[in-house]
Design goal:
Blueprint lengths: L6 H7 L4 H13 L28 E6 L18 E7 L3 H10 L5 E2 L2 H4 L7 E4 L6 H10 L3 E4 L8 H14 L3 E3 L7 H11 L6 E9 L23 H11 L3 E9 L23 E8 L4 E7 L7 E8 L2 E4 L2 E4 L20 H4 L1 H13 L8 H19 L5 E2 L6
Length: 403
């Protein structure tokens, strides 16, 4: 049974017609991005259509981090009409000064530890190194401030996951992980259709994150050098957890090494702080619905890169923006309107939407998308998957979190 709506009308519904796709392709052809996945989506003049302010209040935000990814300024907090960026911080003075300039902010701090003492700040966005996310999020919350963190929620530690979970619950404050896949046009549509019953239970799902580089991307204290692929799983695992808001229950994982490829010397025995030799990991999860998910993070495959996924349910399936199934009248699957100055940005045009979601969760006093339970269900499964890979694919139980 097929939805009578054509693929063209479906694309038009989410605002991604052929013209927009063409513009994006032309932009990427003119200037090759340095890091896969960071391509900016072409400005969408319709992104602000139907936008109406919910408040005239400005949330006083602090931003931390302006390293290799320049994420501190990439999510448009400085452009949101309900945000005042009152302070920024980076451990490197030159980066801190540049972040302040880009965010049109005069106040700077040499560290997060100094920034969190500022009582004027209500919320902090952590665009910092992955190993610091859990510790810093806990510190921000304990100082009485809302926090949005870049991915992943924790870095290889099940104990940190539990500490973060308990801290968020005890604080009563907003915590949000800025998982970009959750505001990809396809995943956002999948979630809306799933919630409306267009898939039924998901029997099978796939999430893929390809991130090949023939050079070593810079990172604070070299945390990226030889890093474990599925410790950075959320761009893939969002294609189940972000669609259903349900966790995985167990996993079997295998890993491989692309040691023959140039640039992967850091994945040789003893060449990195993790003692890791896997450049690629593929995990087979059992889901809370009783289905199966194949999730991967691959560095060694020479592909064009990308974060993508597919879902297959009892009543329908979806690959990209192509829904096939029993539901004849689709729900509104267009992403919410953005304030006029906020553009979708990079990672599939997700940055601006993530910023807006975090801001609205504070203004409307509601649970944000990618809340702490969802964030940990996307992240912790990858930590356990790596443990399975070290045990030659032994199936292991995955901890589960809920609000």
């Amino acid at each position: 049974m097929k939805n009578p709506a054509s693929r063209r009308s479906f694309l038009q519904t989410v605002g991604l017609g052929a013209a927009a796709v063409g513009l994006s392709g032309a932009a990427s052809a003119q200037e090759k991005p340095k890091i896969q996945g960071f391509e900016e989506q072409a400005a969408d003049p319709k992104a602000s259509k139907k936008w109406t302010p919910v408040s005239d209040r400005k949330i006083r935000v602090g931003i931390v981090g302006y390293g290799t990814c320049r994420f501190g300024a990439a999510f448009s907090f400085q452009d949101h009409p309900n945000v005042e960026v009152v302070a920024v911080s980076d451990l490197f003075p030159d980066r801190c000064a540049e972040l302040a300039k880009v965010c049109r902010c005069k106040k700077t701090y040499p560290s997060l530890e100094e920034m969190v003492k500022d009582d004027k700040i209500e919320a902090i966005f952590l665009a910092t190194d992955a190993p610091s996310h859990a510790r810093q999020s806990i510190d921000v919350l304990k100082h009485g401030k809302h926090v949005a963190s870049a991915v992943p929620a924790v870095w290889g530690s099940l104990e940190d996951a539990d500490r973060l979970y308990e801290t968020v619950k005890a604080s009563g404050l907003k915590y949000m992980m800025m998982e970009t896949s959750c505001f990809h046009a396809d995943l956002y549509a999948m979630r809306k259709i799933y919630q409306a019953g267009g898939f039924g239970k998901l029997i099978y799902s796939e999430g893929e994150y390809y991130h090949f580089h023939s050079y070593q991307i810079g990172s604070y204290k070299d945390w990226r050098v030889g890093c474990i692929p599925l410790w950075y799983p959320t761009h893939s695992t969002a294609y189940y957890v972000g669609v259903t808001d349900k966790p995985f229950t167990s996993v079997s994982c295998t890993g491989s090494n692309a040691g023959s490829n140039a640039g992967f010397e850091s994945y040789q025995p003893g060449a990195n702080k993790y003692n890791n030799t896997f450049t690629d990991q593929i995990a087979l999860f059992k889901t809370a619905e009783g289905g199966t998910s194949r999730m991967l993070m691959c560095k060694g495959i020479r592909s064009k890169g990308g974060e993508t996924g597919r879902v297959f349910g009892e009543q329908g399936w979806m690959d990209g923006l192509n829904y096939q199934g029993a539901m004849k009248n689709l729900p509104d699957i267009s992403r919410p309107p953005l304030p006029p100055a906020v553009q979708p940005g990079g990672h599939g045009g997700s940055h601006g939407y993530l910023c807006n979601e975090f801001v609205l969760s504070i203004l409307e006093d509601r649970t944000p998308l990618v809340h702490v339970a969802q964030a940990l269900n996307m992240t912790v499964c990858g930590i356990v998957a790596h443990q399975s890979a070290l045990k030659d694919g032994e199936r292991l139980k995955v901890p589960q979190y809920q609000l």
